[in-house]
Amino acid sequence: MDSPYNCILLAGLSLYFEDGHDDLDDFGFDDYGSECDGIRITAFLDAGQDNLTPLGRLEKYAFSENVFNRQIVARGLLDVLREFSDNENDFISVMETVARMSEDGEPTVRAELMEQVPNIAMFLHESRPNFPAAFSRYLVPIVVRYLTDPNNQVRKTSQAALLVLLEQGLISKADMETKVCPVLLDLTEPSSDDDYKIEAMMCKVVTMLSKDTVEHLLLPRFCDLCSDARLFQVRKVCAANFGEFCSIVGQEATEKLLMPKFFDLCSDSLWGIRKACAECFMMVSNSTSPEVRRAKLSPLFISLISDQSRWVRQAAFQSLGRFISTFANPCSTGLHFRGDGALLEVPSVCHAGRTIAHTPPNQDGRATPSPEHVSTADAEEVHSFDDNYTSVPREMRGGFTRTFSNSNASPTTTNNARNTKDTEQTDENFNSFNYWRSPLPDISGELEMLNSEESEEVMEQKETKEEEEEEEPDFHDSKSTQVQVLSAALKAAQLDRHRLGFSNTFRPLHPVSFLNHQTLQSLARLQNVIPQQLLDQYLSMTDPARAQTVDTEIAKHCAFSLPGVALTLGRQNWHCLKDTYETLATDVQWKVRRTLAFSIHELAVILGDQLTAADLVPIFNGFLKDLDEVRIGVLKHLYDFLKLLHADKRREYLYQLQEFMVTDNSRNWRFRYELAEQLILIIELYSHYDVYDYLRQIALTLCSDKVSEVRWISYKLVVEILQKLYACGADDLGLNFINELTVRFCHCPKWVGRQAFAFICQAIVEEDCMPMEQFGQHLLPSLLSLSSDPVANVRVLVAKALRQSVMEKGEPGCAFSDELEETVMALQSDKDRDVRFFASLDPNKSLMDTAPLI
């Protein structure tokens, strides 16, 4: 009695059988003796003393008075189904037994049964052709019934099982609509028992259902739950999952039904609910139109940023950058994300909607398109002129009106006149705004008068200079500073005016002369892509006071979302973010600088080569000299950043690559591993002369690293360098490099170096880095000499290189074929078993990995 009982415990089945030894015999446990680790749960189906059939024994123990017998049957249902899956009648009998067992009065049996339902469903889906019918008939009712089970553990198990079944797509749409959703609706009734409420379950289920099912069955109930005044937990769950509902039901239902509820939740009396709304704000914004996003959601988000609760403000600031990113428009930014996450230029077809149909010129030289030829986008540009005008501060209007309104135009507006030389002369000065507006009067006389009065204005300014310095001491510090700020602010406006073909006749003559300090600050932040309040709040995240009143890591969140904000604003509005980026790049927290270092290559794509060279390269150089935690961010995307620079600027970094070999901690081998990986990519950016002069020495140093992983990747780097040299026709440099490899590795006193030489030779042959004739002349003799190396690990790689690579690539009858065959035959009779294996292995068979040997 003791031995079989101990076996059961050791097998992980803590069962106690009251019937004694006879029951153990019936279960077949005595057949295993002391080897009880291999016990089968379905051993009770084996023939015993009761002369019952396997199905009879299943019935006996499935409905036994001993609860532990029923538990073990429930736990082994999957194995039971495997036993009877070949016979259709037996299979149906087992499924009916399962349905009857689901009504067991013991909660532990029901919980055990429900835990097996997902596994049973997967087995039936893979092995049974009539799976949907059997699953819908027998198992779905069990799952649905257990959602309302009196025992909490059974209910939780049923909810978990339902989520798994939905994730795997095993429940049909009809079952969801007719069986599962009605139960979910009943359990979320306001009058239902609080212990049975499963609002969280319904919110999780909604992400796995179709739009039609959610919109017609669950959306009305969700709207009601958002207004539940009895339990705040219900409203909190709804707020936390609000974004998922919006993304599923789409824009129309979101704006019509969900937006009023979202406004109520954002003004809820409990800060936890408002915080949940701030966290899901981006998903809600993605499900609305640009008009609703700007007119309704933006003021709502501003209210959350200024919330009285610090936790709400903290969540809002963390979501601010993501919310701003929802304003991005690929056709205005000129960039879009590919499926793999790469940021690319938008195809030119996106700009077609903003072009104007070409028509023959009039006698006055202007093209005269009919109204239907004017694109919709340009018409909207004209109508938005008044809106743009009103967005400008009052003191900025007047002579600057046209300049500011032009700066708000989309930078991607294109002119078809660029396509051909003939149309270029016709349309270079045409713009729909200029054409359809009323002609402006000739003011050449007034301009001459202003020029004559210029000297008088200058004298008056000199006389009042001291008085103005007393009133505004921080404004007239430097005339050059004012000009720099103004130039940065107007840079985008000038660029857009040039692209749109606006006439330069109406430039302001002396812009700096009448702008005060507050106006200059506002001018530097001028843009019309997103609401100005959102941008102002985002720029304030670098204020040290925010770290005290909101979040100590608010600067890190600002740095994390800055590329998304820059993409939204576009490179024409980079002046709005430049100072903020420079402030973050010099932040005292290394985590902030590390975040910028990891994303600087993406920001370079957004800004383009000119702004990158002017504004990002200095910061990039600073990161190169920072802590290792910051430098690793630059190093991981070194290739991505360097390829965006001009060749002359890129070449300057050849001298700094050696600095990556020095780290704060010599044990940080992953830093050197990442360097080798990046150098493999960087090779294509430089000429073969630069590769030989600068990258070669770094590669050889890495090949001698103490860590095998670094050496492994460095050998591949050496092969890439050699391939670059021969591909560019620099055979003399390639030969010098081969001689250096031979001296350094083939004749190395350490066996690791000689083993590396064998691996490099094999990689050279497999990658076709050089002609086989030259390989046989310069490398093969040294490789063959290692066939008698005293270290078996060296001979293993020599045998592998010769048998799997050289003999396959070499042509029969070549100069070195005889010596090669003799060496391979000698290795086939080597005293080491692994050497004999690789020397005799058929190259067409699956190859054993020898990486652990290096």
UniProtKB/TrEMBL annotation:
Q: Where is the composition biased (Low complexity)?
A: 403-418
What does the record give under GO molecular function? protein phosphatase regulator activity
Q: Where is the signal peptide?
A: none
Q: Which residues form the Putative WW-binding domain?
A: 428-478
In Pfam terms, one family for this protein is WRNPLPNID
Is Repeat set as a keyword in this record? yes
Q: Does the keyword Repeat apply?
A: yes
Tell me which InterPro entries the record gives.
Answer: 2AA_helical (IPR055231), ARM-like (IPR011989), ARM-type_fold (IPR016024), HEAT_type_2 (IPR021133), PP2A_Regulatory_Subunit_A (IPR051023), WRNPLPNID (IPR033461)
Which GO CC annotations does the UniProt entry carry?
Answer: cytoplasm
Where the HEAT repeats fall, as residue ranges, is: 218-257, 297-335, 779-802
Supply the name of the protein. WW-binding domain-containing protein
Q: What is the species of this protein?
A: Cyclopterus lumpus
